[in-house]
Amino acid sequence: AQSVTQLGSHVSVSEGALVLLRCNYSSSVPPYLFWYVQYPNQGLQLLLKYTSAATLVKGINGFEAEFKKSETSFHLTKPSAHMSDAAEYFCAVSPRAGTALIFGKGTTLSVSS
Amino acid sequence: KAGVTQTPRYLIKTRGQQVTLSCSPISGHRSVSWYQQTPGQGLQFLFEYFSETQRNKGNFPGRFSGRQFSNSRSEMNVSTLELGDSALYLCASSLEGTADYGYTFGSGTRLTVV
After folding, report:
1. What secondary structure letter does DSSP report for A43?
2. Coil, strand, or helix at residue B83?
3. What is the pLDDT of residues B38-88, one digit of tens each?
């Protein structure tokens, strides 16, 4: 079965520091991969998605993620954290077109000044 | 361009009652998916409707059902509510319901069962 593992349920960084949120997937075929962000009492907002084009994907708000097939990873990074980045982040996989998204458990990002 | 609209935003129901949630997708989108989000289980897929037909279904009991209308608006119904049904219910709108087109989520309906 397809699955997504997000390492670390909670990550804390200082403002201006590098943000690294980890995501590993299991899939027998190249998947579609997504990162979503959720602010309190809101729905999910798409940050970026990988659909087998470039392995380095740039998203909104300065985030980017690199697809590494050999490591089955799709880690999310941002060079410099901002207070407004504090939220919950979800990695998701869709094994093939037309199937539902499978989400990881989420990582809560805290940013301190 | 209007986003995905879910109504109501908040709902409180009593055990044993039934509830209907509504989702209006982005204009032109034909696919609506529903997800349940709880602290313990995270985000879990309920079902997907495409052009008024249920195309995919998750692993939820038959108390959870849905439908889609000709204008692509979708409703989700939960009968005989249990305390464990308390959750944030999210719907996702997609042009074709495929990952390459992506999914846009609504703000959700927060259901509390007492």
Report:
1. -
2. helix
3. 998 999 999 999 999 998 899 999 999 999 999 999 999 999 999 999 999
pLDDT of B13-46, one tens digit each? 999 999 999 999 999 999 999 999 999 899 999 9
Check B100 against A32: CB less than 8 A apart. Answer: yes
Interchain CB contact of A97 with B (< 8 Å): yes
Q: Cβ contacts of residue B61 below 8 Å, gap of 6+?
A: none
DSSP assignment of B35-63: EEEETTTEEEEEEEEETTEEEEE-S--TT
Residue B78's nearest CA partner among B68, B69, B70, B89 is B89
Q: If you count them, how many residues does chain B have?
A: 114
Q: How many interface pairs between A and B have CB atoms less than 8 angstroms apart? A: 62
The verdict on B90 touching A (C-beta cutoff 8 Å) is yes
Name the nearest CA neighbour of B88 among B21, B53, B37: B37
Q: Do B42 and A103 touch (CB under 8 A)?
A: yes
Query: Distance between CA A6 and CA A88 in Å, rounded?
Result: 12
